[in-house]
Specification:
Blueprint (H helix, E strand, L loop, with lengths): L19 E8 L9 E9 L5 E8 L9 H4 L3 H4 L5 H12 L3 E4 L2 H14 L8 E4 H8 L8 H8 L9 H22 L5 E3 L36 E4 L7 H10 L3 E3 L8 E3 L8 H9 L3 E2 L1 H8 L28 E2 L48 E5 L3 H13 L3 E3 L8 E4 L9 H6 L4 E2 L23 E3 L3 E4 L11 E7 L7 E8 L11 E2 L11 E7 L2 E6 L10 E8 L5 H4 L2 E7 L7 E5 L7 E10 L2 E11 L3 H7 L7
């Protein structure tokens, strides 16, 4: 039985068993807020891995279909196809109460979210899973993470690339095989909550149209919501504000941005709040309910009385879901007490060339014969942070790659004190991985041990402060570069990856050159923040489209609250051409102790060449101070 049709056969799938909705879209371009979906396919799979449904259709976007040479969808082929709003209900029903799965899931999710918004509906997806992110965790021995490469590795037949339905069927086989590997390695699934944590101008917003129903008055104690009621929201909410508004509008409520004597109810989780809306609600005697109560009441909204002159159609409620050479530069300090004064990297001056010069061996470097860990990937468990960081540094000095998570590419494990208590140790034992004590790093012996079978040459290992030239193809468009940061899953804090687009004065041109969770895309779409899971975030940079004044893109990470990078541990940073390209280089940064923000990497221009530098410089202050150092004003 092929993987494309097999059900799950791993005993106790447990944490890996969900109702899945696998999606693929073909689009007229790459920017979701501007371009349109030309075709869509959805395949649903149950927790047992058996297919439960399938739907695909071409779509008439009402615009130029874009790169026909890629997707083959001409104006003539699309002319008689339905528009998205005509099939949105059927697609929504297949997505409802399922985890959306796609290869580069944020791309498909964003396009669907905008299409649903144009159709005046809310995309009914509460979680998504990216098979790219999942396979970056698994790390199979493939040259890259393209759909075709993974299909070949997992034995999934592929017939028509860039055909939405065939790609979705292939994705089904890849998902099944990837989940088996995740279960074998005991890896947590990189599920992403949807919509994003924070709203922004790029989050799909339900259009504000006149409510079709008359206001029936105020919500009575213990009573039900009724269509036409005027509802306002204030304060922090567990669900994204746009999602709450979207559900309420779909149910026939009249969502307001202010409170008056005509307001039917105010939704807030902070009844004692000093916000203007809360004060006005108290003054006017407006009923106040919390978010949980509001969501419960949304499940059973009474019908309303239509305005006499109302002719606009009302949307039916959506059911609520339950090898490049590394050059070395001088190390940078790891702590600072004030906002950074970014410095120009002290890299060797190069004359303009068409390719990377022949490698030059840095002074005091360990000779090749003294690098017994070349081609090996070593996971360090246990120990206090300083000892673990020193062990990972030693791995890199010996030519190896320091891992931060267990994956299929890990070849060795070093056990520091208390490492035997790590939750991954039982899986490491089951996989029969070589386990060493700390003394092994003094003079490691790998006699009789081979690197992972069938694995192509891995990415270049970059030390902290290492610099590489980014290859630029001749005669073809330059690819987007994806700088991906990942870390061990954290239970007590969240890590936010951000980017700053800087000019020759190491300053942003305007506030929108600060890319973060609240504004995950620059206005021109040249720098974007992508979320692959709770332990992975990516900054995508389109070097060819950056403004001429741009000299550098700085990638940083920040922690909220009292957590520090010393407790988080190592951050791994990799750079790859394209979303599914093979990583060109990888660095493990873990010299931090008390820092709350850290510069991870920077892509900067040196003459005609773009370079990547692994930084690893930390600061004790918060993200607001870091941003001010680059000229960004963050409103209090």
């Amino acid at each position: 039985m092929s993987l494309a049709s097999a059900s799950f056969d791993v005993p106790g799938m447990g944490d890996y068993a969900y109702d899945w909705a696998l999606v693929d879209v073909e689009t007229s371009g790459l920017i979701a807020r501007r371009d349109r979906v030309l075709s869509v396919a959805v395949v649903t799979i149950g927790p047992d891995g058996e297919q439960t449904g399938e739907f695909s259709t071409l779509l008439n976007p009402g615009c130029n279909p874009g790169p026909v040479d890629v997707h083959g969808l001409t104006v003539e082929r699309l002319r008689d196809a339905p528009t998205f709003d005509q099939v949105a209900g059927r697609i929504g029903a297949m997505l409802q109460d399922r985890v959306l799965v796609a290869h580069n899931a944020q791309f498909d999710y964003d396009f669907l979210a905008y299409e649903f918004a144009r159709a005046r509906m809310w995309l009914p997806v509460s979680q998504r899973l990216c098979t790219l992110a999942l396979n970056r965790q698994v790390d199979p021995p493939t040259g890259d993470m393209k759909l075709g490469s993974l299909a070949a590795h997992y034995g999934v037949p592929q017939q028509h690339a860039h055909d939405a339905l065939d790609d979705t069927r292939v994705l089904a086989g890849i998902l099944r095989a990837s989940l088996r590997e995740a279960a074998r390695l005991d890896l947590p699934l990189p599920l992403v909550t949807c919509p994003p944590r924070a709203e922004s101008q790029f989050t799909p917003q339900p259009p504000k149209s006149p409510c079709a129903y008359r206001n029936p008055g105020r919500l009575t104690p213990g009573g039900r919501l009724q269509q036409g009621m005027k509802i306002a929201i204030t304060g922090e909410t567990a669900h994204a504000r746009a999602e709450l508004v979207g559900r309420a509008v779909a149910a026939g409520l009249n969502m307001m941005t202010s409170v008056s004597r005509h307001t039917s109810a105010l939704v807030t989780n902070e009844p004692a709040s000093d916000s203007a809306k809360a004060r006005r609600a108290v003054a006017e005697g407006v009923p106040v309910i919390d978010e949980h109560t509001f969501l419960r009441l949304l499940a059973d909204v009474r019908g309303g009385t239509a305005h006499e002159a109302t002719v606009a159609a009302v949307v039916a409620p959506v059911k609520e879901p339950e090898a490049t050479q590394v050059r070395f530069v001088e190390p940078v300090s790891t702590t600072a007490s004030a906002a950074p004064a970014p410095e120009t990297p002290t890299v060797p001056t190069l004359s303009p060339v068409e390719s990377v010069p022949a490698p030059r061996r840095p002074e005091n470097a360990i000779s090749t014969s003294d690098k017994p860990l070349v081609g090996r990937r070593v996971l360090v468990l246990g120990g206090v942070h300083a000892d673990a960081a020193a062990a990972r540094t030693r791995v890199v000095e010996l030519g190896g790659s320091a891992a931060v998570n267990l994956s299929a590419s890990v070849t060795d494990v070093v056990l520091l004190p208390a490492g035997e208590n790590d939750r991954r140790i039982h899986r490491i034992t089951a996989l029969a991985l070589p386990v060493h004590d700390p003394h092994w790093l003094t003079a490691p012996s790998v006699a009789g041990q081979s690197t992972a079978a069938g694995r192509p040459q891995g990415p270049q290992v970059m030390p902290r402060g290492g610099v590489i030239d980014l290859p630029m193809p001749h005669g073809t468009p330059s690819p987007e570069w994806y700088v991906t940061a990942n870390w061990a899953t954290q239970a007590d804090c969240e890590i936010d990856v951000v980017a700053f687009i800087l000019d020759e004065d190491e300053q942003v041109t305007f506030d929108e050159d600060f890319i973060f969770y609240g504004a995950p895309e620059s206005p021109a779409g040249t720098v974007r923040l992508l979320t692959g899971g709770p332990a992975e975030q990516t900054i995508a940079v389109d070097l060819a489209s950056l403004p001429p004044a741009t000299r550098k893109v700085v990638v940083a990470a920040a922690l909220d609250g009292a957590a520090t990078f010393g407790t988080v541990g190592a951050i791994q940073v990799g750079a790859a051409p394209g979303s599914s390209g093979a990583p060109l280089a990888r660095a493990t940064l873990d010299a931090a102790t008390t820092e709350r923000t850290m510069l991870l990497a920077e892509i900067y221009r040196r003459g005609p060449i773009w370079r990547l530098r692994a930084v690893g410089q930390g600061y004790d202050h918060g993200l607001d101070a870091l941003a001010r150092g680059y000229g960004v004003h963050i409103a209090e």
